[in-house]
Amino acid sequence: MNILCPIVLCGLVAFSVPALSQEQPQSPVTSEVPMTYERLGRILAALDPELQPNGAAFALTIRDVQMLVITDAGADRMRAMVPIRPASDLSAEELRRMMQANFDSALDARYAVANGMVWATYIHPLSPLEKDQLISGLAQTVNIARTYGTVYSGGAMQFGGGDSGNLQRQLIDELLKQGEDI
Exposed/middle/buried for 166, CB within 10 Å: 0-12, 13-18, 19+? Predict the structure, then answer.
């Protein structure tokens, strides 16, 4: 059986066609300069004054969570990573839950497995990355690392009416406020 069955495709097309036919408001043009290694470093230093640059990478701590941000100017990419735990005894249920979260609650951050570790990651092209996108992505990465094994959430949006969403959203809001003057 084809994974994309006709019923699902019809539902997606029916859902998306009205959105295409309606006039969409124009988003304001931003005047942000392209993200560079140097600009990224200034933003990260505002978030963690004890930032440690090392070649193309930066080590920093956000809310007691150690993070590594790696840049590759030649490939125009950046990656923020937080180690969560060894992957050697990762159960099928935990892996399934991480993949579900990648689909609906991790938002721009993602769970990943590499080099024998489970990671929280945020990956983005470097030059078009805007300051607020970066800060939000870093906060979401910290949030999915902190909520691994519980709600698996990036914190900006979440289904349900509990307290977790508001608590996790606080980090994004606090970091955005910290970065306002950059």
Answer: exposed
Global pTM? 0.73
Integer Cα distance of 123 and 129 in angstroms: 10
Q: Which among 43, 73, 50, 30 has a CA at the least distance from the CA of 135?
A: 43
CB 80 within 8 Å of CB 141: yes
Cα–Cα distance measured from residue 114 to residue 79, given in angstroms and rounded to the nearest whole number: 13
* Cβ burial 99-108 (10 Å sphere, 16+ → b, else e): eebbeebbbb
* Distance from C-alpha of 118 to C-alpha of 135, rounded to nearest angstrom: 22
pLDDT (tens digit per residue) in 29-76: 557 899 999 999 999 999 999 999 999 999 999 999 999 999 999 999
CB 73 within 8 A of CB 57: no
> What gap in Å lies between CA 33 and CA 182, rounded to an integer?
12
CA distance 141 to 112: 11
